[in-house]
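Explain this fold:

***
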Amino acid sequence: MKLSKIFMITIFTGLVYGCGGGGGSSEEPSPPPTPPPSGEAATISGTLTFDKVPHNTSTNGLNYNGTVEAPIRGVTVQLLEGTTVVDSDVSDATGNYSVDGETGVTYRLRVRAELKQTGTQSWDIEVVDNTSSNAQYVLDSAQFTVSSTSETRDLNADSGWGGSSYTSTRAAAPFNILDRVYVIIDKLQDVDANLTLDPLVINWSPNNIAESGDIANGRIGTSFYTQDQIYLLGAQDSDTDEYDGHVIIHEWGHYFEDNNARSDSIGGRHGGGDRLDMRVAFGEGFGNAWSGIITDDPFYRDSFGPDQSQGFFINVENNNVSNPGWFSEGSVQSILYDIYDGTSDDSANLGLQPIYNVLTGQQRNTEAFTSIFSFMTYIKDENPGDAVALNALLTAQNINPNVDIWGSNETDNEGQPDVIPVYNEFNPGDTQNLCTISTFGGFASNDNRNKLGNRKFLRLNIPSDGSYTLRLTPPGSQDLDGFIFLRGEFVNGDNAASTSTVNITGNLAAGTYTADVQSFDEAACFDVSLIQN
């Protein structure tokens, strides 16, 4: 593949030859050392680093004056003779590498923005430029001729910051992004001896801006995850995320849920204090908590604005959240982080392993939609000795501690009777009149109807194999939609633009299914029936 994005750095040997005439000395200068004969085996080694820019904890913007050189870890390093790869290595945890060549030969070094490993634990992660035909980022040295059987060649990926703006190639950005993924993998290796990750492409470009449009031109709208691809903002003086480590880890968390765990979140706009669809609340709260868990840093910081000097932070350990409840991402992140960490202000201290076990085990296969109800049910099942502490976390967030996966005992309806029960249960022959609400927003076109009460959740009990119909009957001209799932997998549905009765018919095996039904254009009441054909 043509690599159209190449970062060049000048590499010096560290040998300086002088004239020796200073101070009136008449001593003849020493001749340069005699190089070994051409063709002898040679080792080229060194340390790879990138410029790491921290956040200013007072403004939450980037602090370029605090830039340090950090090791480039776990990446592929190639020794190239022309276009031929002569040898390769993977940099270690301190950024060191070593490759073999020959004296008298001209080479260059290439550091690829990728983390790759095969075997019992495996992964394949690349950082590419979505505005340059998805070319993978690499860091190239200048050409050099090997003059010793042992040579040191260090490389640094520069931030590109010129003091008041970016003035040169932002070579460090892809490697800081990868380093956040390295940290994730390093932590997960300790809890999963067979850690296997699906291939992931991370798209970053200095052209990626918070505007909607053509992704190939950088108009990505926001940093986001979709189908084994993460897109990250990079437009200077607007919003850059390459140094916002918690943002990167948050999006990686969605990738992890999608592949190794499970998320039923429908996405959409969300913010602190929002009363959300419980699936969205869990997914976004998990992403925030995940970034704190991986880094052991509860402060989620996001920089933006002129010179990247502005920003905001979220303390995911904060238990005093706005509008707490089973529909709150703030409540979810607080609970998950408190389960993990061991500070004295928390009643629970389970660490990462139990959280990981639930996410990749029972939560992945739950009959219900993924929510704080399903997660807390399973983590209490697997850690009965910690039930009192876990219940205290739920109570502190105004969530009924006597949970099951269906939220059966939950009573908090936020003053809206149609919010409860969390699931309406149906057996064949049942008909119920259900109402959605717009009290907490969600019906704007860019909200995805993802607020509390915008949709109704159904629990469908199918007693035997056969043909069944889920019928949605509008009282007037409402456009009704419905979707049936089995353990998170889509089974059947109808979202056609229609104002007539919707019949979702298909063959279903015996079991427990979930459904999500809604009135598309506005809040409404409508009849729902489960019919055995």
Summary: The longest strand covers residues 41-52. Residues 278-295 form the longest helix (18 residues).
